[in-house]
Amino acid sequence: MTFDQILQQLVDTTAGTYGPFEWSAAYFRQTFEIFMTSSLGRFSPEIILCITIVSLLKLRLFNCDRWIPPYATALVGSIVAVGLALYQFQTLRMSAEPVVAEFFTGLMIYDQFTVYFRLLLLIFLVLVVALTVVSGIPDRDDGPDFYTLLFGAAVGMMMMAGANHLLILFLSIEMASVPSYAMVGFLKGRRPSSEASLKYVVYGAGSAGVMLYGLSLLTGLLGTATLISVDGSTPDLASRLGLVLAGNTAGTAASLVSNPGLTILLAILMVFVGLAFKLSIVPFHFWCPDAFEGAAAEVGGFLSVASKAGAFALLVRFCIALTGNPDPSLAGLNLSLGIGLGVAAAVTATFGNLAAYSQKNMKRLLAYSTIAHAGYMLMAVSALVIIRGANPSGVPGLTSAGLDAEARRCLEALLYYLAVYLFMNLGAFAIVALIRNQIFSEEIEDYRGLAGEAPVLCVCMLICLFSLVGLPPLGGFWAKLEIFASLFQAGRVHWFMWVVLGIAAVNTVFSLFYYMRVLKSMFLTERPVGARSALVPFRSAPGLYVVMVSVPVLLLGVLAGPLSQTANNVARILLR
Amino acid sequence: MDATTILFWIFASISCAAAVAVVATQNVVRMAFWLIVSLGSVAGLYFLLSADFVAATQLLIYVGGTLVLLIFGVMLTATGPYSQIRTSPGEALLAGGVGSLFLAMIITTVVSVDWDSLAAIQQQDPSYASYAHEPGFNPAEEGNTARPLGLKMLGISLEDLGRTDGSLSHGYLLPFEIVSIHLLVVLIGASYLARAKRRSRPDQPS
């Protein structure tokens, strides 16, 4: 290619050519459709968020924020972005053949998986902005700052879902993390808040350093930074792994303890450290309870759901890239990865549930519950890695197609879990924030007898917490069931997954106790004399908001079919 | 032993020694000085690798920008003339132990790889052949990397010149642009945390 041809190819990324300009709806629709196939069009939801950030700052610069409140700008921006993401999702769902396309010269990937997470994160962003309006935590002066940080983090999380290059992997994690540090310390003048923020920064910087070292080691060893090459034109991780490890004696995990398998394993482990920090997997969870206790409950809700969802999308992309090579000499690597993730998941779930038991502060309890749920979701990923790495001939009763179906089911479980988790965890954090506005306390002790005064909040809390436990007929039940089913199937490949399944089941029973303690305090005890009253009627903004967040939890429990079908489709295209 | 090797050992040992000195000194200003020495000699290593653009950036941004900012920060915020950071012997022992274990792990794994044969293996990749490997405007061996890097930031890869299969390799337009949004957001966050809480007075324009 000559320089001109390169330039031409770079500019000309759309699927069609724009026609001559005319004032007609048909022209605008066609132009829009062509634009949405270009790199900028595929990136448009993120760009809308960037535009919103800039307009928030500009409006304050010209003192317009006295007439246009910052939350209105933020709401409009995020709703427009949801609209675009919905359009993308709908187009992808309707397209006759599966669309998997690279954009921005292969740095990002555009498929249903990307857009599913985009949509999830943007809907969540709208809900969080609405929550800040209801609970009023950033006041009018601080609004632009808060929403700038919130949207900046959201752009990073959305980029996580579409990352197809190790550089974007690192960049998106940093883009999501650094604004989060500032958000945790957003309540100024409060010592716990600043302390939490500082702890978060120090842990974050350390894990980012380790991860960066791992990334550079991995890139150096494999000579590529592309996760998955769609058309096979650039070398990707899977093909290079096969090439580099093929020189080793094939097949067994023992072959990893040789040159350069051990170094590759170390590099992968270091990348997982960075991801585990974002997911608050034991032993990289220390920041989580302190950060959540120090931060406002709204920020805690945002971090516990959005940053987990983004990091899981990234983890899945990375794991799929690593396990993409069916070469039998990589079976040992895949198996050790899967079992390693399984051990981490089991330990995380157990630790989170055990530590939550003795908590007195509601936000700390929810932080440990977040850790436990990250453990459950990681189990689905470990099952996915185990099944993807399995040799079809080595598993009795499962054909190659059967293994593919089971891999899809693992991913479907994760996607379903994240969608339900969005609503139930946001609901719990929102109710903590709204109760705090009434009684100025987040201690479980002070929740005694609240059911008599704020029945809406308490009933919605009951729905959210029961769903977190995984009781039928709520959304959390199906989510847990799907994860357990995928663990069971993965156990047919390697027995260790059955151990993980057992641990997960015991954990579920155990988690019932500490969630019940909160509900018992709310429903079954009398309100102490002289306690602050918390009268939240049904027909008020807080009442309606919590109902709006809790109803999907119920709906996803009763009507699990459509979402799990969608999730299965997304998984099918990702694992094609 | 040629001059490049000798220079490499000089720069490498200076950067390591200065890095140890950063940790060992207790005075913040001296730490910043040792950091200048360490990062400066890392820039020297980059020059030896013919990565002149990265080396210049290292000097400009780290030595010229970040460290000056760091020293300003220390000067403006320290309560005494020389603020000291003391560590208890237990902490020093623990941190030293963990640090040396980590170092030992990294050294043993990295040294165990035969990097030359690894590069040969990587070149067996069929997709490697689609690059024609014709000299572009500036071969990397001559240094002079600013133009290829700058064009990469705009999404154009000069290594695609003469490539036969018509596909593009990675350009870094997206990271280059999105980092500016990231820096804007971080700047807003930093200024929010640094400034005193504003009290809104509705009767006066702010």
Structure description:
The complex is a heterodimer of chains A (576) and B (206). In chain A, 71% of the residues lie in helices and 1% in strands. Chain A is mainly alpha-helical and 576 residues long. In chain A, strand 1 and strand 2 form a beta hairpin. About 2% of the residues of chain A have low confidence. Chain A is globular, with a radius of gyration of 24 Å. Chain A has a two-stranded antiparallel ribbon with strand order 1-2. Chain A has 21 helices and two strands. Chain A starts with a helix and ends with a helix. The longest helix of chain A has 40 residues. With 206 residues, chain B is mostly helical. Chain B has a domain of 110 residues: NADH-ubiquinone/plastoquinone oxidoreductase chain 6, subunit NuoJ (Four Helix Bundle (Hemerythrin (Met), subunit A)), CATH 1.20.120.1200. The termini of chain B are far apart. The interface between A and B is large, with 69 and 51 residues.
List keywords for this structure.
heterodimer, A: 576 residues, mainly alpha, two-stranded antiparallel sheet, 21 helices, 2 strands, 1% strand, globular, B: 206 residues, Four Helix Bundle (Hemerythrin (Met), subunit A), 7 helices, 63% helix, 0% strand, disordered C terminus
Order of helices and strands of chain B: HHHHHHH
Shape label of chain A: globular
Q: What structural class results from the helix and strand content of chain B?
A: mainly alpha
- Oligomeric state of the chains present here: heterodimer
Instruction: Bin the strand percentage of chain A.
Output: under 5%
Q: Which class best fits the helix and strand makeup of chain A?
A: mainly alpha
Q: What is the overall shape of chain B?
A: extended
Q: Radius of gyration of chain B, Cα only, in angstroms?
A: 23 Å
Strand content of chain B: under 5%
Q: State the major sheet of chain B.
A: none
Helix content of chain A: over 70%
